[in-house]
Amino acid sequence: MENYLKLLAFNFLVRNGDYSDEVFFYIDPEINKFRVIPWDYDDIFALAPHEGKDERKKNIGDKLIFSAEDLLDRKVATDTFLYESYLKCLKEVLENLTPEVLKMVFEETFAELYPYYSDAEIIINVQYDHFSDASIWNLKKELTTLFIGLAASRDRWLNYLNQ
């Protein structure tokens, strides 16, 4: 359960509203406990979860969980014991994702994407994509903006939890 609560915390931080159907659970035979394998993070940094802000608020109020589209997440938000456990995991996740760690992740992401953004054949074909203004400059700008916003959000929620 702790691994799932940490995943829920991470999804709150990165505002991932599409994950209830994009996670696998398996039993790790070495420790005989469930592990979580998240996948498909194409909806991170969303303004609202898939069910919408109003539906989310109706289901879980002002709880620090990004999406309430999944029954398990609604249970975590509405059960006092589970929510307290979740808040401890949220705090731990925020403490571990220091600005230095976040910066490293964004720098590694830029380094991994750089060869594709340097390939003229790829860049010429982005005219058919939803994001038709792909360039190394725009990639750097977007990643910098996301990093600054994520670091500020991390600090805000950590300060909130420490009060």
Distance between the termini: 25 Å
Helix content: 55-70%
Return the structural class. mainly alpha
**Sheet with most strands:** 2 strands, antiparallel
Oligomer: single chain
Strand content bin: 5-15%
Strand order of the largest sheet: 1-2
Instruction: Please report the number of helical segments.
Output: 7
Overview of this protein structure:
The protein is mainly α and 163 residues long. 60% of the residues lie in helices and 7% in strands. The chain folds into two domains: 2-96, no CATH class; 99-162, no CATH class. The protein is built from seven helices and two strands; from the N terminus they run αββαααααα.
Describe this structure in a few short sentences:
The chain is mainly alpha-helical and 163 residues long. The protein has helices at residues 2-14, 53-60, 71-78, 80-96, 99-117, 120-125, 136-162, and strands at 23-28, 33-38.
Keywords:
2 domains; single chain; 2 strands; mainly alpha; 7 helices; 60% helix; 163 residues
Secondary-structure blueprint:
Blueprint: H1 2-14, E1 23-28, E2 33-38, H2 53-60, H3 71-78, H4 80-96, H5 99-117, H6 120-125, H7 136-162
Antiparallel strand pairs: 1-2
Helix pairs in contact: 1-4, 3-4, 4-7, 5-7
